[in-house]
Amino acid sequence: YVYPMDRALYNRFLKRMADTLHPLGYTLTTALAPKVRYNQPGILYEAHDYYAHGKYADHVILMTYEWGYRYGPPMAVAPINQVERVLNYALTVIPSEKILMGIPNYGYDWTLPYQEGTAANSISNTQALELAIQKGAEIQFDSVSQSPYFYYKDNDQNLHVVWFEDARSIQAKLNLVDKYKLGGIS
Fold first, then answer.
1. pLDDT (tens digit, 9 = 90+) per residue, 139-169?
2. C-alpha distances in angstroms, 77 versus 92, 98, 149?
3. HSE-up of 4 (CA within 13 Å, CB side)?
4. Secondary element (H or E) of residue 83
5. pLDDT digits over 64-109, tens only?
6. CB neighbours (10 Å) of residue 12?
7. What Rg value do the Cα atoms of the chain yield, rounded?
8. Is 77 exposed, middle or buried (0-12, 13-18, 19+ CB in 10 A)?
9. Where would you tag: which of 34, 86, 169, 175 has the fewest CB atoms within 10 A of its CB?
10. CA angle, 20 as apex, 19 and 25 as ends, to 5°?
11. Among residues 155, 61, 156, 159, which one has the least CA distance to residue 109?
């Protein structure tokens, strides 16, 4: 939540940190919200100058997750098609070896029908698998997002949908690391 008007100040701060830390043998790592273009609007994006981070930081963690989020509508947390859009932009201004692609280790459980402003429950990937087994739910796999999900009914017969990560979705993300010769994952 760096204010857009502080973009230049933030860039100067990054340079100052690099100039201070590098001679001491330290590395500088930053984390950035997932942008798909330079002038992407929004409080999470406008102050983040991908080029400056790529120039001054040793590693840049791209937070390539949270498309599906706690207060949003049900969907994959890190759909591969959206992750790749972020990488395609980032690679135009950040050296590939500096990029660490964020991979979520969690999912969300939404009560259906979804109502705007309601919160999903956070769930670990292991908890999601255990819940699917407990409820006898069939885990499905969305080919576009490359993400697993399943439906189940709770004890009160409310319908739920759970989106999470599994070996298939993580492998799809690891394939992007190889494809774009990224520095790694986070």
1. 999 999 999 999 999 999 999 999 999 999 9
2. 24, 23, 11
3. 9
4. helix 80-90
5. 999 999 999 999 999 999 999 999 999 999 999 999 999 999 999 9
6. 13
7. 19
8. buried
9. 175
10. 100
11. 159
